Amino acid sequence: MKRFIATALLAGLTSTAFAAPVVYQLDPSHTYPSFELSHMGFSIQNGRFDKSSGTITLDAEKKTGSVDISIDTRSLNSGWEKRDAHVKGPDFFNTEKFPAMTFKSNKLVFEGDKLVAVDGNFTLLGVTKPLTLVVSNFKCDMHPMMKKPACGANASATIKRSEFGMSTYVPNIGDDVKLSIAVEAVQK
Questions:
Q1: d(Cα 174, Cα 176) in Å, to the nearest integer?
Q2: Where are the transmembrane segments (predicted)?
Q3: Could you tell me how far CA 186 lies from the centroid of its own chain?
Q4: Do 177 and 41 form a contact (C-beta atoms < 8 A)?
Q5: First vs last Cα of the chain: how many Å apart?
Q6: How far apart are CA 55 and CA 46, in angstroms?
Q7: pTM for the model
Q8: Which of 28, 89, 105, 121 has its CA 20 to 30 A from that of 69?
Q9: pLDDT tens-digit profile of 38-65?
């Protein structure tokens, strides 16, 4: 009888442990926020941000969680230093006054077991607006190198930069900006 009670108690504790929300820390070596926009209709130009941080909390059983990501705007990298200096200035990101842009969410959208979107609030240049990130890839599993639980995803959305106060050279430099983020996070 004691053995049955101990086994039942252990089984209950184990299932409770797996049902609890898990906090994952962004892995900066595998998290790349990027953007693309039209350059006078001649081409689609790309850039990325080399520094980001944050956490993702996931309760896989309940299909709930939260996302809190901060992107260091000063880490902008378009591949050309002179352009980077201009884009970091007051005409665009104004990184001296606004060194970060953020995305915060408490609503993960699942279809079955598949995460398909994250509804939240995006803040750029001190302006916060609702934003839905569409998730095209999502996986949680044991990380084979780190030997810890990890999750990864690819997500994207399109914003109008002028709605955030970044209207320099619109429409010659595109108003529609596609944001993408490849993200990997490891359990804390």
A1: 5
A2: none
A3: 14
A4: no
A5: 38
A6: 26
A7: 0.88
A8: 89
A9: 999 999 999 999 999 999 999 999 999 9
